[in-house]
Amino acid sequence: MAERIESESTMGVFASRWVAPVFVGLGVLLLPWVIWLTYSLPTSEQARHWRLAWVGFDSALAVLLILVGVAAVKRSFWIEGVAAATATLLLTDAWFDLLTAKPGRELTIAGISAGVCELPLALACFWIARSAERFFVRTDTLRG
Length: 144
Description:
Blueprint: H1 2-40, H2 50-74, H3 79-100, H4 105-143
Helix pairs in contact: 2-3, 3-4
């Protein structure tokens, strides 16, 4: 365990030298693109492969949810990444469900789904990603 922590801290120093400036730079460079899209995209569009897009997205979400469960059972170190990815897809799902829903019943269902399912589950996944290693260390001590 000490070897893992030592190698992670060494990797952290290396990564912080390039990750911060590269990712902040990419985010800043993306802002003009976002502004351009704001004024150039049409307010509505008909998607040709709407069904395929949602089936593919929800299939990926299902796989990630299963992987979080498998990683938890196996007490795998990759639970942090897969839980964070799952949370991100859940937030994205809620966002697009709400923004693409028709007013009325469809929007109400999307809002309930977001508030009851997707957002709480995303928060749980972010919590898992943030605290999995500490949880595993604590429960390993209790099992020992």
